[in-house]
Known about the structure:
Elements: E1 2-3, E2 6-7, E3 11-16, H1 19-27, E4 36-39, E5 46-49, H2 51-54, H3 64-70, E6 75-77, H4 81-96, E7 102-106, E8 109-113, H5 123-138, E9 142-147, H6 150-157, E10 165-167, H7 173-178, H8 190-198, H9 204-208, H10 212-219, H11 222-229, E11 246-257, H12 260-280, E12 283-284, E13 287-294, E14 299-305, H13 313-328, E15 334-342, E16 345-346
Amino acid sequence: MTEGGERIRRIVHVDMDAFFASVEQRDNPDLRGRPVAVGGIQRGVVAAASYEARRFGVRSAMPSMRAKRLCPDLIFVKPRFEVYKAVSQQIREIFADYTPLIEPLSLDEAYLDLTDQLEGRTATRIAQEIRARILQATGLTASAGVSYNKFLAKLASDQRKPDGLFVIPPEAGAEFVQSLPIGRFHGVGPATAARMEAHGILTGADLARQSLEFLTARFGKSGTYYWNIARGIDMREVKPDRIRKSIGAENTFFDDLRDLDAAILELGPLADKVWRHAERARKSGRTVTLKVKYGDFRQITRAKSLPRPVESRDEMLGIACDLLGPVFADPHGVRLLGITLSGLDEAGAGDAPRQLGLFDQA
């Protein structure tokens, strides 16, 4: 049996359940069974929400004030990213016992290709074993999806959350996709979903009725991807050497900034954080991007690219400050500032000032 002329693969997508919030509830018994939001302190945004909070409509990336309105009893907890990274490493070590083909998407989810690692077992049985080992090692639950490609495995992992397992076999792939609302498709964001709906494409079945020519004419190169997934086809491989393309840090302020000198002072700790975490992975970056969000939630970015790698934390900070000056003045004040370093390359072992790396954000 083949997909697009290729042999059928066994792909598992493992997704930790409310990962950051679940770690906090595990480590603090007082938080168990209560609505918890990680992040969102003062005027920030929610980084993660427990399932108790999600019942009230609280979601990640939601402004904390809105989250509090939806759930007055919501408990905000300061993120502990070093703890989350350590737990994530425990989980990845479990994955490595089953396959070398692991593609992490973030700290809390990854694809695993088990096609050549079954040794008489099924991918479903291995997924069950992985979930059991994660629970035993970390005290946390994970959901898993099993299918013959990445697109369907990721869809499957959402089907029985939390602490669930769902399998989409090859003979059921196309039918499963056609029954879904278009907004559930991974790779179809809100803006694209709205464009599709304007053309009467509301479900996978609607998408499957469109010709390849129609889709490419309206969605460019992505049209081929949409045509394929509407038929349960996804030929992307699990890539264990997935490369991150940027590093960054940002901060939301309790009071909107209205003084340029004060804003420049706030850029300093952001530059420290980016450079410190960057050095660990020995990367060099050529582009510095400044992110500014104003008090009315408008957001802009400004960037400067160099013909060579940025040489120091101070040079990166200086570029960010130069970018900030022309865009700072606004009657609404500045709510958030961020610095990102991109255009990453490997740095030489002897180039200590240029040893940049990847700052894992979740």
